[in-house]
Each structure stands twice: as C-alpha cells, then as structure tokens.
Amino acid sequence: MSQEPDLLTRRHFLRTSILGAALSWTVPVFVERTFSLLNAEAAESTTQIATGKDHPILVVLQLAGGNDGLNALVPFADDLYYRARPTINIPRDKVLSLDGYVGFNPRMAPLKNLFDQGRLALIQGVGYPNPNRSHFRSTEIWQTASDADKYLKTGWIGRYFDNCCSGEDATVGVTIGSQLPQTFTAERSTGIALTQSGKLGFGKEADASEQQVFNELNGITPEHDLNSGASIGSINGPNEPTLSTVEYLQRTALDAQVGTDKIEAVLKRTKPEAIYPKTPLGNELSLIARLISGGLPTRVYYASQGGYDTHNAQENSHNNLLGQLADALTAFSNDLTSKGIWDRVLVMTFSEFGRRVGENASKGTDHGTAAPMFISGGTVKPGLYGKHPSLSQLDQGDLIHTVDFRSIYATVLNRWMKAPASKILGRDFSPLSFV
Amino acid sequence: MFSPLSKDKWTYDTAAHLAARAGFGESPSQLERWTKQGMEATIQELLHPDIDQTSLPKCATPNQLADLRARVNQATDSEGKKTARRTLRAAENQGFYELISCWTQRMLTTRAPLLEKLTLFWHGHFATSAAKVRSPYKLWLQNETLRRDALGNFVTLTKAISRDPAMMIYLDLAASQVEHPNENFARELMELFTLGEGNYTEPDIKESARAFTGYRIDRFEQFRFAKNQCDAGSKTFMAQTGNWDGDEIIDIILRQPVAAKFICTKIWKYFAYEDPDSELTDRLAEIFRQNYEIRQLLETIFSSEEFYSQRARDAIVKSPVQYIVEAGRTLGVSIPNGFTLFFVYQRMGQTPFYPPNVKGWDGGKSWINTATLTFRYQVARELVLGIREVNQPHPTTTPQASPSPSALASSSAQPSPSTQTLNTMAQTDNSSGQSRISMAQTENSMEQTQNTKGQSLKAMAQNAVRLPALPIDNLVTTEDRADPEAALRRIYARAFQTTPDPQLFSRILTVAKEKPLPLSDDAVRDLVALMMMTPNYQVC
User: How far separated are the first and last CA of chain A, in Å rounded?
Assistant: First the structure.
C-alpha cells in the first residue's frame, strides 16, 4: 500500500496484471467511486515522501493568452514605459524593485520573497526571431520549439520522451486538464491527461467474459501485446498518420487503464495540503505536488493558467492573474520544500508572447512579442538573466527579444534533465547559467 | 476526383455513411428508405430540408437580465454587489444551460440534420464563448444567424458574423476606438475565419482594424453602426488603397484564392477525413470560389466517389455532441437537459456555446485522450441505465479573471473539470453502501462540499434521480429476445449503423450467448453499453 509504484513497462504490466488482478476492476460506476472519494473522512492517510526515485522533474506552466510582461516585471526606471502606458501602468512607488531598473508587480509580492530567498530566476526579454502574433501559431512555435517559419510535428517535450524515456509508460508525462498540450506530441508516448479520472473499465459487476471482451475490443489484451511484439513500443503519437483512428483509440484506452491505476494508488496515499490558494492554478499545483510526493515516476508535468489575453480593461484582471500565479507558485514551493523534495523540481513558465508596449484605447494591450520567463526550483541559481529589451528601439511597436526561448529549453534539457539538448532542439543553443 | 458515385455503388452502408456525416445517424427504416430512393434524392432532401417548428427558448428576448445587471450597478456596498453579482451569474448560467439543452433537443429531433450539423460546424468556425459573452440572448441570436446562413452564401455569412453582437463582444469589436483600433477581430477574421495564418501581413491587420471601427451594440442588444465613431479614411489593405469599410475588407479578403481553399479544407475535414491531398482541396476551392455557395459545395462533396472511399470510412472521431445526439437518435437513450447536459459535454471536451477559444474545437483525434475516453465509456453506461441528474453547484462568489478567447483550458467562468475533486480524491476504495450519488458532486466546488458534509451528502445521494433507462421494446422484439444473434443484429444496426463487421459482431455475440434466455431488458442494455464502449463506436 505504501510502496512506490513500480516503474513497469506496459508489457510487464500487461503480463502481470491484466490476466490476474486487473479483472477485479469490475468496479462500480464512476459516480459511486466519486462519492466514495468525496466521502473519504473515514480514511486515514499519510503523505508518503518519495525517496527511491530521484530523477529530475520539470513542471511546465503555461500562461495562456499572452502575458503582459511589462506589467509583470515592470521597467519602472524607464519613462518610456509610463509614456507608452498612461492609464494602465504600475505606479513607480508600487513596484517591488529587483535591480533598480525592473521590479515586480505588487501583486506578485510572494514571488519577490522567493526571489530574495534565492529560489527564483527571471529571464528577461525572451522571444524568437520573426515573431508571430497569432495565439495559435506562436503557441505552436513555443510548444514545438521550431523556427518561426518551420512546422514541426512533435513537441519539444515529446522529443525528450522519445529520446530519453523509451520503455516507460504514458505516465512519464502528465498534464492537468482534458487536453494534451502539443508539447507532448511524440513519436511514441504522449502522456496522460488527468481530470476527474475514474477508471477505464466495463464499469459493471460483470462476469469475467464481458470484461474480457471489453478488453479485447479496446486492444487491452495479452494476445495483442504478445503477438504484435514491438507494436506497443512503437505506438505513435496522435499526429502520426500511420496509426489508424481505431488503433489510436485502443492505445489511449490502454494508457488510461495503466495510468489511472497508478495515479489512483498515489492519490490514495497522499492528501491535499491546506496551504494552496483555492484557485484553479492552486488546485492544479496542489495535485501535481501530491503526484510528485506520492512517487509517480513522471518526468514532466504540465499545467496552465488561462485569461492572459488582455485586450480590454486589463488592470484588474491581469493583476489578479499575476496574484494567483504568485500565490500558487509560492505555495507549491513551500509545500515541496517542507517535504524535502523541492530540490528535485524545476518549474518553468512560458507564454506565447508578451504584449504591445503601447496600451490600446480600450485600456488593454494587443499582441506583442518578447516577455519574461519565471524559473523556480530548489537548485535554481537565482537572479535576473538576460537583458531587458529596449523601450526605445521597437519593431512595429513591439519589443525586440534579447534571449531565444530555445536557449532556456537547452539549459533545462542539458543541465536539468540531463538530456541531449541539441538533438532534441535540432541544433545548438547557448545555455544560460540558471541551472 | 469529384466524379459522382455510380448508382450501383449506392448501398445501405453508403446511405449510413452519409447519415452519420451529414447528420447524426438515422434509424434502420430511414436508412432503408434512403437506400431505395437513391443518392441524389437523399442529398437533395438533406440540402433542402423541412424547417423545424421549434418554440423559442426563454432567453430569446433581449435584455432579459437587464434588471439583474442594474442591481449590480445599484448596489452600494461591496457585500451587496457580491450578492447581486452572484444572482446575475446564476441567471446567466441558467440561460446558457437552457440554450445548450434547446439546441441539443433540436438536434435530437430535427428533420433537417444537415442544417444542424452545419450550424455546429459554423459555431466551431466562428467560435464565440459564453465564458466571455455573458448574454444568453446574444448567443441565441448568433446561433440563429449561423443557422439562417449555414447552407447559404459564405460571403453573406461572414459579413453577418462581423455584425453579430456576440462576436463583437467576444473579439472586442464593440469597444474598438478610432484612435487605437482593437486588432483582435481583424486578426482572427483573417487568421481563423477566412485565410489562415501566414496569408496576410501585420500591416493588413492594422489597416483592416481601422475599417471595423464604429461597430456598436444598441440598447436592444442589436448591431448599430456609429458613423461618427468609424475611421472613414483611406486604408491600404492587401495592396489596394481606398476608403474601405468592413464589408469591403471582407470582399477583398474573399477574392484571395487562398480563402476558398482554407474553407474547403476545413469543411472536407469535418465531413470526410483529415489531411486531404492538396490537389483535392484545390479542386474543391475552384468550385467554391465561383460563388461561395455552401449548398453547392456540399452537393459536390456528398455525391463524390471520394467521400465514400475506403479512406473516408470510420475515419472521423465522433465529436462529443455527435456522440450524445447520435446515441439519442439512433438508440433511444434519454438525453439529460440543463446542468447535467452541460456537465457531460464539458467532461467529454465539447460544450456548445463554450468553445475553448476563438479557434474552436480542434476535433479529430484530439477529442480522445485518457481522460475523455474514460469519461465517454462511463457516460455510455450511465446513458443506458438512465443518467442521474446532476445537482448544480452554487456560482462562485468571486468571479474569475475575465476569460478571454485565447485563454486555453482553465479560463472558463464556469465550473471547470475540477482538479479540486481530484485533490479531495480518495483515500478509500470503499465502493459499498450509500454510494449512489449524482455525478453532481464531482463538479461541486470545494465550498459546497464543505457545506454539505456527511448527512446531507448521503441524503442527496439517495435522492438522486435517474432518467428513464433505455427502453428495450423499441430495439428488439419478443422473438428476438429468444435468439441472441437476431437481437444482436438489431442492436448492432442501430449502434454501428452499418451491416455487421464479422469480427466485431462475433466477439460481442460471445457475450450475448452467455446471457440467460429470453434476454432481459438489463441483458440487452449490457450489450448496448458494451458496443458503446468500443473504439469502433467512437468513430463514424
């Protein structure tokens, strides 16, 4: 019960479990399960600290919609900032200065503390050449780590999975939410999407033969595994054209079954901590903390916070988002620190772009280019990295990036994940020293 | 390539293929009629349907919520404002649940399935979300606009959408000012609605944004053109200079050859299969560009050999809406309304009136991942037994940061598939006892679960109401019940719509043969659920 889940390959799992114990997943319907979950008062549980597995963990946090970097990390010493933003600026005396030139939005005070405690690195002016201002295309560029004029099928995390995690099951990547991010698209394993899970099964106290037919029709069969040899290992990502739609469905059914079993085991022996804010992001990071501390062998977690597309009356909404981000991230850091596992974790935020330097007439900002990234973790080398983009030399009213985002990916891959960055990113990008 | 399917190739299975793609599946008797009357007559029937007689939803009157909105503004203290806002929010949500239910009911009973299927397509194309547009009336109005022009002319439709109040709110057109025009609509008009990314320049966006100024919404929630708030000056757009207005910008855009190809590719993917060859969409675009008549385009597609080819068969993953509506239409399961329906759609990954962002739903394989597939299977079981009504959570006290079109995933003002529940999840595997509860509880906010601890939870569980279970007498006859193979044939024809695939049929038959005879209602329901819980049922 308190054992860490074994790092089984799918095949191993199938051989050992499907034929035997797994037939007992003739569990009641999900609703009943959910009830029992909610009604868990009776159950005693203790948080199990993972010890055995010590591979590095990456948490990617997407700020979806295009975060207005200039109102998050504010160049308060520059008059041009105040001239460009007469109504939506952060007043100079409110900014939490970091180096005399830039400082945090006051709603991000908790992150200022993290910074002062040496648990946070900030990278200024991150972007890429020939920036694209479409949400979807720019998100795709960030997720696939492509050049602005190139289209890649797989995500950069997906390529990490392909290169470094062969033989592991789909829980190697876990995304919170019902959509897998394009970052996870890989030749092989594409990760688990986690919402209210429940179990994949026939869902009735059925006899064994119904359950078996259900398994077979869903490709969850020992025969499938044994006869097709390498087929499980070579199963492809959702964009892989060789996988028929029905095969893709079978693969997903298998992943769901293996993944939810493991996750359920982990959730059973962990409990949510009280320190998290009751926000969507707080909930997501709380859940990720449980999965990490419960010993799930996941290498990359993915969470996202939406709402950053602030074209209109942005002041309150943007400040709230930043506040929620700072609160949730700080709780996450404190939680994992107190459990002694913060040293194994690196959190990296990204957004598809920053926003136009000048405000628009609706007291908002339109799509822009470069923006800062926040990196936090137990072993991160704290500080300000990169040069803040000039506010006088703009390209069509937008900042000119000073750091290529792939330099950060390269740093994370090489120095944190111990992965061959140049192979995954297609060429060399000079790393930074935040790890 | 678009040579018509020859008459001898028109069979029951091709008719079924058309029924699933151009609609939501049909009964065996309807498919037999279509088989007999031939392809041409069937396509004409779909393209020129009888219009449904439906009653208007309650929210179909402008300014329904004006009183509640006024109360928010009038409240003087912050506590009063909070309460007023909560009441307003709840009323708005009720309106959206009503819209979702009404449209679903319409799709379930419609005599114009293609019209509804296309309206759904255009809803995903000109995506607009209630997470930002907090007016059920405006969204209802947009739905009517989409339906009115769904089979008509694409130029007309695009212009109508540019003046659609819901869209004007969603992409900030209604607030665009001459001094700094808001670029949101201008960008998405080209990127997502007509040309596709890369087929316009940043200056094109800035210039056309100027042309879409002066678009306002009046106090009856209708479009109004404010002449003195528009930029009537000269604009250079796509290398053409003139005092262009919004409609003229749309005309220029739709004269670009790439526009027709962009739309045709998307329509082909929606109705036929993913990744069509460029040659094929070039040919379609050539036809479409002549007059942008949607009806003609669809006639070409539905009568083409390619549409019925092996490559097109079973190639499309049913969308959640298709899954639900088809189950209702072809099997006869009861489909819930209101919040329960909202909840089910949301967990499956497609809630009408709540597209995830302005790009709409990606569709295809992206409908399916570990979370959504698991939920689909659970819903199948629930639908067959009679789904349990979900209790609606209280609206949250503090509104979330204003959700925006591009905000992926977690930005909804609605309760989102809650990680909270996962967090409160399960220290126990206790599946016994009083575990009957509506799906409801999973969705409830933390505050509500805290408010309704212990006793009341149990009480609610016991009171959970089920919709009627799937009626079996419509599916199988008394004689069929004595003959598992005959019974299975009947169910199979409804569930999978086609003549049986021998392998799939024989696997399910092994289960049917183990049931005691005559087959009980529950035994038949088991078989229906089993069919719905296969990869094969997820595709059409």
Answer: 36
